[in-house]
Specification:
Radius of gyration: 29 Å
Structural class: mainly alpha
Number of helices: 3
């Protein structure tokens, strides 16, 4: 085989991505199913508190984000959202 002879070279088969509308692509759903619209948390509430109150909240929350701590407290330890 010479330097420029490519007859012994084997080509790999070319892989293509599936078409957008292919049936195999539409069947598979990866991940968890989405929540129903009435269970989605989409509303936003804003609070202004003093720096002392923020320090107390940070101390009580520990490593948990403050918003998540407040939401857990309101849902489980108060009757405000029931």
């Amino acid at each position: 085989m010479g330097k420029k002879d490519l007859t012994g070279l084997k080509l790999k088969t070319e892989k293509k991505l599936p078409e957008i509308n292919s049936p195999g692509l539409l069947k598979r759903r990866v991940g968890r199913p989405s929540k129903p619209v009435n269970e989605c948390e989409s509303e936003l509430i804003s609070l202004k508190i003093t720096p002392v109150e923020l320090a107390i909240l940070k101390e009580k929350a520990g490593l948990v984000p403050i918003g998540r701590y407040i939401k857990h407290y309101l849902r489980n330890q108060s009757d405000l959202l029931k």
